[in-house]
């Protein structure tokens, strides 16, 4: 059965309804939110204005994902490499989750959203860590959309840490090397408990993974758009899901 979602589209797209089948909604969507700086530059504005508007897009897309029936939404908010940016920009990015949660947490709770965070939280400023911990705690019993922020997250670091942990257990005789398999590794990664993303979206025209969920994206469908993240909205999410539904997922086998 095809559900028409024409009314969700922006004015310029109203002539082209997006057909979405409710039976094949990706369970887990992961997003590399890119292009904040270029969006701002194009408008002659400071980069941080791009990030501020990127935060608004996080809200829009969370609501749209929830309405669409997506179960898990992972957003790449800050990578382990983003510390290389100028201090003022890093400080601003560290304050954004605090601001986002101050504005949105009550509505997220009302919508039964569960907030999670994955990444090295030790290195975050205490105000960022505290705001995230509070959001995680206040939403831990919610049963709706899981909104998972990748914050100070790096795919290689995640794998390194997991390998180290397993190596220690082997050295201590607590783990038999023959018991190391994909399932065990899945459960020990920062995303443990979440299914692998079905769909990975990257905005701004860049076509790379930038150290994002390197293990988990092994069989995800990838969708790239030229749209800068601050402009991304529900109509783009719908386009991505519609394209996802046209893909044939074979996992290395035959159809
Ligand atoms: C990449 O764009 C974006 C980031 C490094 C930060 C992403 C963060 C947000 C969208 C806001 C997060 C909000 C919450 C609530 C955590 P860029 O700055 O690299 O853009 P550019 O490539 O055009 O310079």
The total number of structural domains is: 1
Distance between the termini: 21 Å
List low-confidence stretches: 1-15
Report the C-alpha radius of gyration, rounded.
Answer: 19 Å
> What is the annotated CATH architecture?
3-Layer(aba) Sandwich
Number of helices: 7
* Chemical compounds bound to the protein: farnesyl diphosphate
Describe the model.
The protein has 255 residues and is α/β, with parallel strands linked by helices. It has seven helices and eight strands; from the N terminus they run βββααβαβαβααββα. It has helices at 36-42, 47-68, 87-110, 126-139, 155-171, 182-188, 234-246; strands at residues 3-4, 19-20, 28-32, 72-79, 114-118, 146-153, 199-202, 221-224. The strands form two sheets. A six-stranded parallel β-sheet has the order 5-6-4-3-7-8, with helices on both faces. The chain has a two-stranded antiparallel sheet with strand order 1-2. Helix 4 (126-139) links the parallel strand 5 and strand 6 (146-153). The radius of gyration is 19 Å and the shape is globular. The two termini are 21 Å apart. The relative contact order is 0.19. Mean pLDDT is 94; it is low at 1-15. Residues 33-38, 51, 54-55, 58, 77, 82, 93, 96-97, 100, 149, 204, 229 line the site of farnesyl diphosphate (FPP).
In short:
One of its GO terms (cellular component) is cytosol. The protein is of the alpha/beta class and 255 residues long. It has one domain (3-246): 3-Layer(aba) Sandwich (Undecaprenyl pyrophosphate synthetase).
């Amino acid at each position: 059965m095809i559900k028409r979602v024409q009314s969700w589209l922006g004015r310029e797209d109203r002539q082209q309804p997006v057909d979405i089948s409710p039976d094949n909604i990706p369970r887990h969507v992961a997003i590399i939110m890119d292009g904040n700086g270029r969006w701002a530059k194009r408008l002659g504005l400071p980069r941080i204005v791009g990030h501020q508007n990127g935060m608004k897009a996080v809200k829009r897309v969370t609501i749209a994902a929830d309405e669409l029936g997506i179960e898990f939404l992972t957003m790449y908010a800050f990578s382990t490499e983003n510390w290389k940016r100028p201090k003022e920009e890093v400080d601003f990015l560290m304050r954004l989750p605090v601001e986002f949660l101050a504005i949105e947490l009550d509505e997220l709770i009302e919508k039964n959203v569960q907030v999670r965070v994955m990444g090295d939280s030790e290195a975050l400023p205490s105000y960022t860590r505290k705001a995230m911990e509070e959001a995680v705690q206040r939403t831990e019993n919610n049963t709706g959309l899981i909104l998972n922020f990748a914050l100070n997250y790096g795919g290689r670091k995640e794998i390194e840490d997991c390998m180290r942990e397993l190596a220690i257990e082997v050295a201590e005789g607590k783990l038999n090397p023959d018991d190391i398999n994909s399932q065990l590794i899945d459960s020990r990664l920062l995303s443990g408990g979440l299914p692998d993303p079905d769909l990975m979206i990257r905005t701004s025209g860049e076509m790379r993974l930038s150290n994002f969920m390197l293990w988990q994206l092994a069989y995800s469908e990838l969708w790239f758009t030229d749209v800068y993240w601050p402009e991304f909205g529900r109509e783009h999410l719908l386009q991505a899901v519609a394209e996802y539904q046209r893909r044939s997922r074979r996992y290395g086998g035959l159809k």
